[in-house]
Amino acid sequence: xxxxxxxxxxxxxxxxxxxxxxxxxxxxxxxxxxxxxxxxxxxxxxxxxxxxxxxxxxxxxxxxxxxxxxxxxxxxxxxxxxxxxxxxxxxxxxxxxxxxxxxxxxxxxxxxxxxxxxxxxxxxxxxxxxxxxxxxxxxxxxxxxxxxxxxxxxxxxxxxxxxxxxxxxxxxxxxxxxxxxxxxxxx
Length: 187
Fold this sequence. Notes:
The chain is an alpha/beta fold. The chain is built from six helices and eight strands; from the N terminus they run βααββαβαβββαβα. InterPro entries: Isochorismatase-like_dom (IPR000868), Isochorismatase-like_hydrls (IPR050272), Isochorismatase-like_sf (IPR036380).
């Protein structure tokens, strides 16, 4: 009789990217106005099950940045702030894996699946999801729990926040991650 593997794979870790006070101060049109509410619901869901939670904080090297050390903007948004039993990693580039120890922390705990939420869709969310996939993690990005801002494209044409977000999700879908809605994870 073949021996069955009784080890249950650990649940996905929830990675919350750059949900800091300074991101609220950006006075530019954005998409997904309910993203913080959805992130809070996912965080509560993970906490209730004691699944792994990881908070990523951007710490800028530029002294005049709202995300510079010691600035109020570098602090976590209070409703999404980590608890003492939750992991916190700091980054100063877009990718949460670069120079942070995140990959090792996940491997040591046997975590092979990630659920990524946060800001900005085409920036830190996309960069982190791409690296996660390239490092072999099963990666999901929660489209309605991520957001970004309107910006000019490379050709100088204005793009809405929704267009920028949708392109970031398109870049990730199937190639680097499974893009899902928060309801799929909360049901």
